[in-house]
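Bumping with the actual sequence this time:
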Amino acid sequence: MSVYELYFPVYKYPIKPNLTSHIIKIHLKMEFKLLHVYTLLSLAIVGSHAVSPEVYWKSLVPNSPMPKAIKDLLHTTEAWDDGKQNNYYTDYESTHIQLKDHQYSYVASNAEVKDHPVPFFWYGESKNNAKDHPQQLHSYPSSKNQIINDYPEAKLLFLEHNLHQGEELKLHFTKDNQKTAFLPKEIANSIPFSSKDLPEIYNKFSVKPHSVEAKILKQTLHFCELKPIQGEEIHCATSLESMVNFSTAKLGAKVKALSTEVKAKESTPSQKYNVEWVKKLPANEAVVCHKQNYAYAVFYCHTDVGTRSYAVSLVGEDGTKVKSVAVCHTDTANWADDHLSFQLLNVTPGVPICHFLPEDLVLWVPY
């Protein structure tokens, strides 16, 4: 199997090569109609009763394996508030009913407390940023060292001309220890997700209003409610099903979901990685979903046009293997002149900015 087929299998149609092109078009139209009917039937099935996220996933995106970044969040080894062992998707039907009126408990992890509240690529992404996004939400890092210390994403930046077989790139992949799980869709939909409902949210998760946890919840909600930059559509997905729905609505039914996978149990050191191979993915549009700090799994998803995406195999100096996904933002002319990535890469607006995805990000691309 080729590298291309590994990510995007080539479908061979049973059509003889001597048939005319209009017959091929008819065949493709028939295939599309069948796919459309299949999708409608799948939606009818999953809409008729509660189904597990795995079943929902297979019904809407049957040709895309579930990425590790999502699969890791389907189960939790701790109950929400009593410390009992609990895999609440093992018996989905009965468990999601038991959780309906459940009182949850949220205690922030060390990673959440340490994390900066505003994502790296949000800083100065648009020249109109100051108008659209109030500055009181954050303060800009004062130096390159502070940027690198505050943001794991800063250690995954590179320039596109350096992405080729045999190149060495200094990178730092860190593990996300914040593993708050997805809630069942029905439960997530029943819980308010708005800044105006913060008192109710605090009560639901047994959070004191002036605690660190309250600050984290407030920051994520505020970020999800900010206006998108021009030409971008955003959605904060509070369940796996919500993420799938948004991504397929924007890109169509034929999509793949990809994430970076580092073959190591613990965080690896900052080190040089050798590029074993690179494969450009056949799409210039995507939906990117960023994991947020919250009481349960929430992803900030946004459409991303003017990008080039790559599947890349890396191997570190210590032997660590990484099946990575990289994205290059090609339309940076309108990014603010002081964007953090320009500072770190010593380039100016207009130059494509590339980065590998951390393990907790999910890239959706059409095929």
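The tokens above came from a reply further down the thread. Residues 21-48 form the longest helix (28 residues).
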